[in-house]
Amino acid sequence: MDLRFTEEQEILRQTARGFLAAECPKTLVRELEQSEKGYSPELWKKMAELGWMGLIIPEEYGGIGYTFQDLTVLLEEIGRNILPGPFVATTTSTFPILEAGTEEQKKGLLPEIAQGDLILTTALLESDGVFDASGIAIKAAPKGDAFIIDGTKLFVDMAHVAGHIICVTRTKEGTAPEKGITLFIVDSATAGISCQVMPTTSQDKLCEVRFENVNVPKKNVLGTIDEGWAIVEMMLRKGAIARCAESIGAIQTCVEMTVAYAKERVQYERPVGAFQALQHIMADMWTAMETSRYLVYEAAWMESNGLPCTKEASMAKAYVNEVYRNVSKWAVRLHGAIATSNDHDIPLYYRRSKAADTAFGSTDFHREIVARQIGLV
Amino acid sequence: MDFSLTDEQKSRSREFYDTCKDLSKKRPPSLVGFEAIYELDECWEYNMYCAKEFAKKGWLALGWPSEYGGSGDMMNRVLFAEARGYYGTPGVDIFGVQMLAPTLLQAASEEIKREFLPPIARGEVMWCELWSEPNAGSDLAALAATAVRKGDEYVINGQKTWNTGAHRAHWGFGVFKTDPAARKHHNMTFLLLDMKTPGITIRPIPYLDGSAPYCEVYFDDVRVPAKNIVGQEHEGWAVVNLLAGFERSGINEIMSMMRGLEQLVAFCNETKRHGQPLAKDPLVRNRLAQLACELAAARALAYRVADLQNRNEMSLMDASAGKIFFSELGERFAFMAGDILGPYGQVRTSRWAPLNGIWEKMFHEHFITTISMGTNEIQRNIIAWYGLGLPRMR
Predict the structure, then answer these.
(1) Of B213, B240, B267, which one is at a domain's C-terminal end?
(2) Same domain? B70 vs B183
(3) In this complex, do A367 and B286 lie within 8 Å of one another by their Cβ atoms?
(4) pLDDT by residue (tens digit) across A77-121?
(5) Cβ-nearest to A291 among B297, B317, B385
(6) Please, which residues 317-336 of chain A have a Cβ atom closer than 8 Å to chain B?
(7) Is there a catalytic annotation at residue B247?
(8) What value of ipTM does the predicted structure carry?
(9) B156 and B193 in contact (C-beta within 8 Å)?
(10) pTM (2 decimals)?
């Protein structure tokens, strides 16, 4: 047991921290929230040059072949700065291709992703808004050498700028909802696809994607026909840990900003941070952060080493969802009225806690997984 | 970053678990909760029995230097604490083995180490802590009991309180004011004393559940050999701080809660309410799952603290955070389990009580960890002042 970052991870962390501090000021974050794209193509290109998009892609496909845990180290830094854009969408959608893609699919997509030339996302949720297989109703019907996808997906992260969309469809009506799910890699330029950005709390460009009789060649099936749910579960698990790592970074910023402000802000002739009423809340914020941190690191370590971690990933997500919301709420309250102004940086973090909370499974969704995992019948 | 155990650690851990499981066969059914060992004779005997069994294997001296009979390292100690926590096995004296021994190893003279460490390692001598006073709780430095040097002895007068198991302990360690004229923190001395010394009167305090594991200890001209000193004369505060750092990491309590959760899950699977297993109730599922998440978080943080200690690094903040978190988790767990048990949650150990009445016991016992070892409010001050650098209260 050694819970320190490796030297390589420390370098990645320092590089990312310096880069993001210089390249991703809050003025840019605000600008991107209001922009149509929701990300900066110039910054995206620079991130690709640093090797970030290819971080988890093996060298033979143009990446640098780092581990999942290394990715979470980077995501923590991204979360500190709440860098907007399709990084999480792209990396979490890369995993299904890495694990279930054919050689042709890998060769065709991975080098482009690593170069920063291809943004990827996954279309999972539908009108039910649930993360289990029962929510998948959109049909993909075989027709000759292709499938016809028809229906609507919702909450698709950055779909409006994605080059390809992994679409989770139903190809067979069975007894169990998990049976008969098939994934397709769909070129978003295909005729019949339209996309609309949904107005959300975090203004993070979640989209409604409509598939109207979209023709997808059979060779674009990702994994095995009707057996796609296992890939979705893998992606939800990795995505949950990834978003947790990002949240840890954001939580840390909330704590740091609040403590710094409490030392500065003077009322009753002393810094407000001298009052125990506030000190104890800040101590609780810090404690919540540390308990979350090692829970997430443990899940990331297990995932990275191929250990079964369905329980640990869900525990981390269910727990961190609440901690991020709570800590960012307290960050607003301890700053006082000033942090309810949208000109302040803290609300950026508070609003994003809502996006972090629903992405890759809400608190109660993950708690139900934990309930089964701890042996409740 | 690596959370894994080495093969050697894994086999050691199995050995710890197997031994504790084995010892649990002789466990008296009346031993419910953490403090019952001090309460009933049969439980105290079982505590002493477990201590002797552990001593035979050298496990009371884990992490000590070999010259004092020690073996293994800090990680072994953590793994041992896990196994004991899981089975609720007593036998490792919190005061002697966990707190005093590491303090002596760092701060005591060679003579003291040679005299007091071997009986601890043999599981023969049990200790109590003589710190708090009626007017010195969290503000321990405000203590008033005095030890006046007379020749080769100190003569102690005054009162200590909240002394866990003082009526059972063979020896006690405490701090007493030795230089009333000196400034705070430089006026007290850390002494070791035989609890059978004439002039000591011990009175159990009735605890809120009707038991009496804690005592008041009165000193009336109690004569203690001057050589029984740890650290420098008048500099006992430094020893107190050192010892406080060796108080429990929480891994023992956390594993005890893990077992408690497993038992509660089994209970919910087996017990029918409204014609179906309690486990099918979505509210019960959600609450137990939430608790499982918090327990996992507590354990991950305890590993972080252990990992730091293994490298002789220590984050005061993480230790305080861990203590706050696992102790308040204990409260939440006790209340939640009581809710799930419904009217049975109030039944003390008896034929009506589910799970041998452990959750009724915990309704009272959770206060142990939130109040002792520095109240959680003091822990929050530590994080705020020493960790976050916020201005100190004046």
Answers:
(1) B240
(2) no
(3) yes
(4) 999 999 999 999 999 999 999 999 999 999 999 999 999 999 999
(5) B297
(6) 318-319
(7) yes
(8) 0.94
(9) yes
(10) 0.95
